[in-house]
Amino acid sequence: MNDAALKPQTQTEHSARAAVLLPLPLEGAYDYRVDVALPRGAIVAAPLGSRTVLGVVWGEADGAVAETRLKSAAPLDGNPCLPAALCEFIDWMARYTLTPPGIVLALALRARQAFEAETPRVGFVRGAGTPARLTPARSRVLALAEDGLARSIAGIAEEANVTPQVVRGLIDSGALEKVSLPEFLPLPLPDPEFAPALLNAEQQLAAHELCARLSTGTAGVSPASPKAKKRAAGTAAVPGEFSATLLDGVTGSGKTETYFEAVAEALRLNRQVMILLPEIALTVQFLERFAARFGCRPAEWHSDLSPKERRRVYRAVLAGEARVVVGARSALFLPFPELGLIIVDEEHEQAYKQEDGVIYHARDMAVVRARIENCPIVLASATPSLETFVNATSGRYHWLKLPRRHGRAVMPEIRLVDLRSVRVEPGTWLSQPLRDALAATLANGEQAMLFLNRRGYAPLTLCESCGQKMVCRSCSAWLVEHRYQRRLACHHCGFEMPIPLKCPHCEAEKCLIACGPGVERVAEEFAAAFPQARAAIASSDTMHGPLETQAAIRAMAKHETDVLIGTQIVAKGHHFPRLTLVGVVDADLGGSEGDPRARERTFQLLHQVAGRAGRAERPGLVLIQTRNSDDPVMGALASGDRDAFLEQERAARERVSAPPFGRLAAIILAGADGDAVRNAGRVLARAAPKARGVKIWGPTPAFYQLLRGRTRERLLVQAERSVDVQAYLHAWLDRVKLATGVRMAVDVDPMSFF
Ligand code: ADP
Ligand code: ZN
Fold first, then answer.
1. What's the whole-model pTM score?
2. Which of 119, 257, 485, 690 is spaced 20 to 30 A from 160 at the CA atom?
3. What are the φ/ψ torsions at residue 176 (nearest 5 degrees)?
C-alpha cells in the first residue's frame, strides 16, 4: 500500500522558515522557524502563546517577522503530511465561503488524536520456557498458542477456557512471552471481485461508462479529444481525469449496484474511493450491502464515531490503507493521498448543506474536490436537484439514465386523496381511502409506511381558554409536544419542559390542547384503528436518537414491523421488499414563502417517499393526502412526469434569475441585543457598494427572528451569474466593523431561508 504520505522528508542542514497555517480564525499563515525544509502540507507542532497547537506548513514564509521573534515549529513523529490536493481544496473552499482558511483547515484536522504517537497493544505468544507442571488447563493454553497468534491475557483465558491466573502463571514461567502489537489491526481490504452483481442491460451500460471514465480519462462531453484517444490506446490504465456524471435512475433501478461497479474498478486501479451519504441513519443498510458486494465493510466517517475510531480511520486514510470511506459531509476533508473516485448518493438531499460553522454544500464542494483531485465524481439521484439537472441537460455533466426498476418491480401507482372532498373526522388524520388501503395491505401480509414530516405528537399546543400559544422563550418558534416523554420541546435550541398542568399565561387548568399532527399522534390514531398491527415510529428526533431509528429500520427490513410511521428519515434510500403501501399523511407541509426551492423540495421528498413502495415483486400503491390537488407539484407526482416538472421549475427560476441562473448569498446577523443587531443591519445595507448586476435585499427580520436567544436579521445578495460574488462580498464586508456582540454569518448559495 502507498505510504508516501508518511515518508520522512529529506533533511537539510540549516534551519529554514515556513508559513504555517493554524486551525484558528486567523487571517492567514504565521511564520515559524523549522529545522528542516518542510513541504506544503507537513503537519507540525507550533507554539502559540503558552500552548502548542497543530499547524500545517502552507507555503514559503514571507519573512515579515524578525528572526529574533520567530518561534520554532517541529514536525510530528513519522512526518505526517496532508496531501497537496487537500491543501488546495482548503484554500479554494476558504475563498468561496469567505471563511478564514484556518477555520476550514480545522475541519481537516478534527481528528487531532490521529497525530498522537501510537500506543502499542500488548499481546502474548509462545515463549521458550517450559512450565514446571503441566496441568490440563496449562496444556490447553499451550495448544492454543501453537498457532503463533498474539493474544491478550483475557483473550487467551477466554479462548482456552482457563482463568487469567493460569495465563499469568505461564507468563511467569516464560512459557508465554510478551510482544507489542500495532495499536490497530489493519482495516480489511474490500475485494472488487468478491460478489459482483449480475447487472441488467441498462445497468451494465451505465456501469461500463462509469468505469471507462476511471481510467481512460475521457473527460468532458467530447471523449474524442486527441489526448483521451492516446491514453485509451495505451495498455496500462492511466488514472482518470475530472468528470462529473449524473446517475439518474428511478427509485429501485439499482443505482447503488451500478456505481458499486465503478467503486470496484477504482479498487482494481488502486485508487481510494469516497462515498458520501446524506444521513448517518442511512449507512446501516448501506454498510451491509457494501459488505455483501465487497466482502467487508468500508471505513466509516461521521460524527458518531468514538475518538478512537476517528483516530483509526483518519490514520488509515492518510496512510492509504483505507481504500473506501463511506461518510457524511465531513468526510470531504479527509486526507486521501490516492483519491480516484467520489460518489455523492442522493445528491439532491438538503442534508448535504452544512448550516453551522463553515457554511457549505457538501455536494458542490465534492465536485470541487474531484476537480482538484482530477478524478471522476458520480452524483446519484432519482430526483436530481435543479442545479444538477441543468448541468446534465446542458451537457456540462454526463447523464446516465436508469429508467426502469430492476427485475420485475414496476413503479408504484400514485393516487391523490383530495382532503377537500374526502372528509376526515376532526382530530384524526387518516382518511377512509387510506384506512382501507392499510387494511388491505395488512390482510395480505404486506408492509406499509405512513409518512409525515413532523416530529413529536403535535406541532402546537395552545390554551383553549386564553388562546395563548406555547412558544420557546429563546426562539420565535412553537414548542412541540412529545407525548411519550410528557414534554414540550423546542426543535431549534433544545429547550424542554414538562407539559404544564395549567396555562402559564391565564392559569386556567386542564385547558392546553394539542393542535395538528406529528408522527406520534398518527401512530396513536393508527394503533387505535389497527390494534393488532405491529407499528413503529422512526423520526430524526433527538429524543429517539439515531440508534433507535436504526433499530426501527432494521426491524422493518426484517418484517418484524408491519407499519413504519416516520418523518423524512424513512423517505430515503431504504429498501423494504415487502413494503407495498405508502401513505403521505399531509403533503401540504413545508411550502415556505420566499424560498425558491420549496416546490422542488416538496417534489423530491414526496417522490422519494413514494419510491419506497413496491420495490420488489409485489406492486406498490401510494396515497397522497392533500388539500392542493391541482398544484403542479401534486400533478407531476401523480403523473410521474418528473422532467416536465423540472423543466417548469427551470423556466420559473430562469425568469427571475434564481439559482442556478443567478447567484445568491445571504448575510445573517445575530446577537443578544436586538437593537444592536437591527442597527448593524442598517449600517451594513448602507455600506453596500453599488455594482452592476448586484441587488441587495433587506435587512429584514429572519423567519425565526429569535433563535437560541439571539435576534436575527438577514440580508440577501442577488447577483447575475457573471458577478464574482466573493470579491463583491469581500469589498463590502471589509468596509464595515460590526458592533461587539453582533455576529455575522455569510451563507453563499443559501438553501434555507430561515
Ligand atoms: P436505487 O438506489 O436506484 O433506488 P438500489 O440500488 O437500492 O436502487 O436497488 C434496488 C434493489 O434492487 C436492491 O435490493 C438491489 O439489491 C436490487 N438490485 C438492483 N440491481 C440488481 C441486480 N443487477 N441484481 C440483483 N439485484 C439488483
Ligand atoms: Zn428554542
1. 0.84
2. 119
3. -120, 140
**pLDDT value of position 281:** 65
pLDDT at 223: 39
Residue 533: the pLDDT is 95
Nearest CA to ligand 1 atom 20: 254
Q: Which atom of ligand 1 is nearest to the CA of 255?
A: 3
Q: Is the CB of 199 under 6 A from ligand 1?
A: yes
Q: Which of 250, 257, 283, 289 to mutate to test the pocket of ligand 1 (most atoms within 8 A of CB)?
A: 257
Q: Which residues contact 156 (CB under 8 A, 6 or more apart)?
A: 124, 141, 144, 145, 162, 167, 176
Q: Torsions phi, psi of 545, nearest 5?
A: 85, 150
- Residue for grid cell 467520489: 342
Q: How many helices (H) and strands (E) does the chain have?
A: 20, 31
Residues in Cβ contact with 133 at an 8 Å cutoff, skipping those fewer than 6 apart: none
What's residue 546's pLDDT?
Answer: 67
Nearest to 86 by CA among 109, 65, 63: 109
Decide: 251 in ligand 1 pocket, CB within 6 A.
Answer: yes
CB-based contacts of 710: which residues, under 8 Å, 6+ apart?
A: 670, 671, 672, 677, 743
> Is 200 close to ligand 1, i.e. is its CB under 6 Å away?
yes
User: Which residues have C-beta within 8 Å of that of residue 547, sequence separation ≥ 6?
Assistant: none
List of residues 6+ apart from 488 with CB closer than 8 A:
461, 470, 479, 480, 481, 482, 496, 497, 498, 499
Phi, psi of 537 (to 5 degrees): -105, 135
Question: What average pLDDT values come out for the chain (754 residues) when binned by 10 residues?
Answer: 42 69 91 90 94 93 80 90 96 96 94 76 86 87 88 90 92 89 85 96 96 68 40 49 96 93 96 92 82 96 88 93 95 96 95 92 98 97 95 96 88 91 89 96 95 89 91 88 87 87 89 91 96 89 68 89 89 82 85 71 87 83 91 87 91 90 94 94 94 92 86 93 95 90 93 73
In angstroms, what is the span from residue 712 Cα to ligand 2's centroid? Answer: 13
Domains of the chain: 3-109 (3.40.1440.60), 121-181 (1.10.10), 201-402 (3.40.50.300), 413-454+517-649 (3.40.50.300), 662-748 (3.30.70.600)
Ligand nearest to the CA of 472: 2
